[in-house]
Each structure stands twice: as C-alpha cells, then as structure tokens.
Design a protein that fits this description.
2 copies of one chain form a homodimer. With 403 residues, the first copy, chain A, is α/β, with parallel strands linked by helices. Chain A has 14 helices and 17 strands. In chain A, strands 7, 8, 9, 10, 11, 12 and 13 form a 7-stranded mixed β-sheet that branches. A 6-stranded parallel β-sheet of chain A has the order 3-2-1-4-5-6, with helices on both faces. A 4-stranded antiparallel β-sheet of chain A has the order 15-16-14-17.
Chain lengths: 403, 403
C-alpha cells in the first residue's frame, strides 16, 4: 500500500480542519501534495506552504502522483464537475459535499463502477458520527427498519435555545448566526434542506434506494411562532426538526423532513444545541443511538480523515443493499397525524384532511390536529408555505415504530 | 463470493437468536449446515432440523463444505479449543466468547496471520453496539484518546433499580436474577469481569495494545451498601460500574473497571437498565456516544449476523494500530481520587494514600476521600475485597478528559 498523496480542493473551515487533523495523525500515511483554492493570496487560519496552493484545478487533476482527491468546497456545481472528472480519470475521491452527492448519487455510483474507483463521503452526513459507514458495513443485512434523527445542527441549536433557554425564535436565530452555527443566509439549514440531503444519502445506505430531493416532503422551522412553542411546552414536549426514513411494511418505505413533537422518552429529546443524534432501529437489535458533533471544522475533518485512512486500506462502498432481491420501494401513500397552526388561511377547508380530531379557534390564532396523507402534504406545499401556517408532525401512526 | 455455509457451535440463548435472526435476513446468503450441541435431544426454543444437530465437534471441523464457524458456547475452555482448531485449519470464525477472546487475543491474532484466516467478534463487546468495528475501521487513526462506558448490562440493571426505583441492592440483584438479566451466580457480572474482558478487547482495537486481565484493576459492585447509595443520592450523582481506557499522554495509557460517581452532565448517566453505552473521545471529534442493547438473544445474534455477512464480503480485522510507530504503553502509575467506605478495617492506616482530603467517622460507618495510585489499588486488592470495604472512583484527575 503506497502512501496517500492528496490533492485537496477547498481550504475553508473544513479544509483548514483537515490540515490540522492530519498534522496530529502521525500514522495516517497521508500528505497533502496540492491544494486548489479560489484565491491563493488569501490569508489562512493554518500554516500551509504557499507553493502547494493553486487556483487551477488541473494542477491537481493532471498530477499523476496524486492518488486521492479530497473535495470540501462549498459550491455544489464546481464540486460536481471536480468529483465526476476525478472519478472518470479513475482517481478516488473523499467528499463532504452533501448537496452535490444527494443530487447526483445514482450517477456517482455508476461512475465508481464504470471506472473502478471509489467515492467516500461519510463526512457528508452528520459530520463526525459514522452513520454512513455503519449503515453500509455493520447494518449490512435486511433487518433495518428505520433511521431517524436530528441531522442538522444549526436548526437544532436554534430550537434548543428556544426550548432550553427561553429565547425567542428570532433571538435564537440571531445567536446562531453570530456564533457561526448558522450561515448569514440560514435558509438551507432552517428550511430543512441540509437535513434532507443527508437523509437521501442515508437512505441509499440504509435501504438501498435513491429518492430524488424533489420527491420528498421537506418542511423547516422558519414559520414557528410563540404560540407553537407554548403549545409544545404546555404538553411537556419539544419541537425538533426530524429527518426520518421508515419501512412501513416489507415492500415499502417512506421518508420526510419536518418539525415533530418529541417527548421526553425519546432518545432524540436529549440531542441539544449543535449536536446530531441518530436512532437506527432494526428487527433484532431494537434501537441503536449514535450521538456526536455533526458539523464544525475539526469534527468534519476527522470524518474526512477516517475516509482517507480507509482508502489507504482500499476501502470502498459496495452499495450491497441496492442489489438486494426485495429492496423496498418509496411511497408517500401514508397517513400522518399533524398539528397545523394558522391565522388567515382557512386550513380546515383548503387542506384535504382525512379527519380532524381537534380544532381550536381564537381571535389571534387557530389550529387543527388531524390525519392527512403525506402525498397531500407534498401536493399542498404551497399552502403550507404561507407565512401564517406552521405544520408539526405528531408521531402516532408510527407509534409502534417510534423512537 | 460463495454462499456462507455455517457450522454453529452452541444453541443456547444466543444460538437460538442466530437461527431466528437468520430466518429474517433474506439477503444474508448464509445457511446453517450443522449445529454442535451438548445434548442433541434437548428441546429447543426454535425449530431446527434434528438431522443437522450433532454432539461431535469434528462433524463440523471436518466438513469441507462448511466455510464459516460461528461459536457461541458458554464454556471458555471448549471455545478456545474449537476456535484455535478452526483457525489452524484456515476456517474463519465468528465468536461471541468474550472471556476466551480477552484471555487469548495475542495468540488468536497470530493464528489469524499464520493461517491467513479471520476471527470476528463484534458481539463479544456490547452486543448489538458496533464498538469493535468502529474502533477498528472508523476510528482507525491516532486521534483516539479514550473509550469509557457501561459495558455490563446486568450490573447496570441492578444499579438502575437502586438509583431510579429505590430498590435495595439485594432486592435489585434478586430481580435481575429472576428476570434473567443476571446469572444465578452473578459474580462474573457484578464483580466486573464481564466488563473487564470487553475492555481488554476494546483496548486492542482502540489503541493497538493488549493488556492481560490479571494486570488490570477490576472492582465490582457487590460490596455496595445503603450508606454509599445515600451518599451518592445526597450529592445528586449515580454510582455506575464504569470501564475505561484513557491515554494520559502521548506515550502512555491506563485502564481499569470500577464503580464511579457519575453526575448528570455525563452521557453515561442516562444509560439505564440493561443497556450499554460507550463514549469514544478523540482529539478532533470530541465525544461520540453509542448506545444500545448490550446483551440478549436477538441483539447479540444481530451482531453475529453482521459479522457473518461481512465475512461474506471478505472482511477481517487488520489490527492496524498494533503496527503503529508510537503505540502508547500501559501504566498503572496514575493517581486516582477515590471514596473508600469501611467499618472494621482501618483504611486510613492500611491503604497507602498520597493524601486524604475528607474523612468521616461515625458509630456505624466511616469513609475517606483521597488520592491513591492505581498501582497501589492493585497491590492492596486484598484489603479492598474485605466485606466491610467499598471503593468508588471520583473522576477528577481525568477531569479535563472526563465524560
């Protein structure tokens, strides 16, 4: 096994973390030969030899000595170009770009097979928690029933400030931005897309099925109001942004990202602040809970480093479950029980509920609790996105499956 | 990759679980060809073809069609004979026998190398929690600093009954035996040996070092008294039986199994009942927490099944960390802060404390709190084992390292 000579794309927060982590990992047998950045003259938070910096991606792609590409840039389009080009040249890649991977995974799997090379991306889902690796390698049988968790640290940090520290949503959001837990445009996190992309990647390794982002119900926390928060607190539950993929029977599974009322008995209730937590449920092992830092410079870098060292030992994802004889298929034909809070929009009239079990009206605010199919939630997304409306999942139909 | 044809040794609780789990795992590509049991006529909790039962181990060892041996028997001596014999014949083995593995691991590693075959044993440590696999594959770099956890479900169940349900220790022990969480002779669990053997295996995969059982301080919970329990409750902490291996600097690590005062801020505080929980701490990723069922028929069987399926894909432990250039070495030359409760034995006089920071005497019971070296705890084990004495670790010197 030759030493790893890396070409690194990106020297932002994660890229700098990789440089630091690598300096501590003396037995990694890996060195960074070249780093491609947008601006070679920008000052950096780590010491790097200026001579290895370049702004020309071909300086890495054409370097025959480089036997592994590590890609941690923020631009999903550029990431796609670099990763596909590297795979086509047979160069293995470790990537942390969840958006790019979630959007293009079927093609990326094909490229790995066609060019007999590897793409590893454990860092793309839940940072330092080895979710992908465990789903791929350890839960590599068909006993798996459900993966459910807090996959986005920024939105969880905000909700923690609200529920554990009594901050208003607006203040909590500002704190998150100030502390760097959320981007200055935090919509990617708080609207659920970060969690969605992670969930898509997780589902490929959990159940062997790829579902495209546009086919999945994704609903974030930006419409939450003080009324919703008080409603939850009175019932002694928290509101959390939960991503889940669940086998509903032997042939079918469903998946979605949305706020959920979480009670104290659930493992994810205690996943606070910027942490991530994932519950893996299976037929024989019941529930496994994995908890850790889901983002940040060094935690993400350590996950990248695990993939780098594994490549040194020839590791690749086999995507075994995609070849299973009885891969379950995706359905949105399931009933969810939801709470919908509204003011102006006439929710009971415009949303196609199967039934309504609770209904509350007042001068300022109204809500209903009722059953509605996931497919109708997707269909009526425009209504749900109106600024006076907020939807929260009430786990019930999955009661016997629930964490 | 040919299908797996298994020879199974043992059809007790775990063996029956394997038969059940395998019937659910349609894509495992594995079948049980022969089962070796002590009594072929005994009635079983699962349906098995009587014709595949045998009481002659050579019916499995000599069967050229059998390409994997799964060994889940209770007798450590017989387990050693079977596993070493199989490895010498080049037959890969999946084993759940922690006692045998912990005692003989260096020889078992040599045998795997010499005969170019594999021994997998994730089930031996924490049942369904993939601790070994993650330490071996994912935390496969030198960033790891500590593994600490609740590794024994029986003793944890007893302590949970005491701390969360107000039962006396004696009642809780009886409940555990009645429910099958502890053996009718529960000393293996409550004296810390079960946790010790798991810790030894974990340490090989965490830090690349093997330490023999007799060199490790192991102290269980059987001497706990109502006074100790009240003492902990007044300080709002729980007493838990904790196993830990900790790097104390770049060159050295220490390890031990003993009761510990655990406060609410620690992850393992919430590991209750028969569950196991492990905290993995590293330089870049901070703390990872893995939680799940550490024992029981189906959880253990699902772990065995994960190893079986991995063998189908050619997986083996590489024991990479044993070859690292700067493997840390084991030391007991560390100071611990401990609470020692006693009545008749004159603990302050007979135990070589470095210093004593608290001391309490009364008519019925006395205790001291002080610093003592781990090597002296090992040396004075006979004193600590007197029936009127009980020792509890107070995490302090590892304060900055602590979970």
């Amino acid at each position: 096994m030759a030493n790893i000579k890396m070409g690194l794309f990106g020297l932002g927060t994660v890229g700098e973390g990789i440089v630091k982590a690598l300096s501590k990992a003396k037995n990694a047998n890996a060195e960074i030969k070249r780093i491609c950045v947008l601006d070679v003259n920008k000052s950096r938070g780590v010491e790097v030899d200026k001579n290895i910096l370049t702004d020309n991606r071909n300086d890495i792609l054409n370097d025959k000595e480089i036997n592994l590409i590590v890609e941690v840039i923020n631009d999903a389009e550029a990431s796609y170009e670099i990763v596909t080009e590297a795979l086509k040249r047979g160069i293995p890649v470790v990537s942390g770009s969840k958006t790019m991977i979630a959007r293009h995974l079927p093609e990326l799997i094909e490229l790995q097979k066609k060019h007999d090379t590897a793409l590893l991306y454990d860092a793309s889902s839940c940072g330092s928690i080895p979710v992908i690796r465990n789903l791929e390698e350890y839960y590599d049988n068909d006993l798996l029933l459900e993966v459910k968790g807090i996959l986005n640290g920024s939105s969880n940090y905000i909700l923690s400030r609200v529920f554990d520290h009594g901050q208003s949503y607006e203040d909590a959001l500002q704190t998150a931005v100030d502390l760097g837990f959320a981007e200055s445009d935090p919509s990617f996190d708080i609207d659920g897309y970060d969690a969605l992309y992670k969930l898509i990647i997780i589902t490929v390794h959990a159940l062997g099925s790829y579902v495209a982002p546009e086919d999945i119900f994704t609903y974030g926390i930006s419409h939450i109001s003080d009324f919703d928060i008080r409603f939850a607190q009175e019932k002694r539950v928290k509101i959390k942004l939960v991503a889940q993929v669940v086998k509903i029977n032997q042939e079918q599974f469903t998946m979605f990202v949305m706020p959920e009322f979480v009670n104290k008995s659930k493992y994810i209730y205690s996943v606070d602040d910027e942490y991530n937590g994932v519950v893996i449920r299976g037929e024989c092992y019941d529930r496994q809970f994995m908890f850790g830092k889901g983002a940040g410079s060094l935690p993400t870098a350590s996950s990248i480093l695990s993939d780098v060292v594994s490549r040194h030992h020839g590791y690749r994802y086999e995507y075994k479950k995609m070849g299973y004889s009885d891969c379950p298929s995706y359905t949105t034909d399931v009933l969810l029980k939801v709470y919908v809070r509204y003011t102006d929009t006439d929710i009971p009239r415009v949303l196609p509920f199967e039934n309504i079990t609770e209904s509350y009206q007042s001068e300022n605010v109204n809500y209903v609790v009722g059953e509605i199919s996931l497919s109708n939630l997707i269909k009526e997304r425009e209504i749900l996105m109106k600024p006076d409306v907020f939807v929260i999942n009430i786990p019930r139909f999955f009661a016997e499956l629930d964490n």
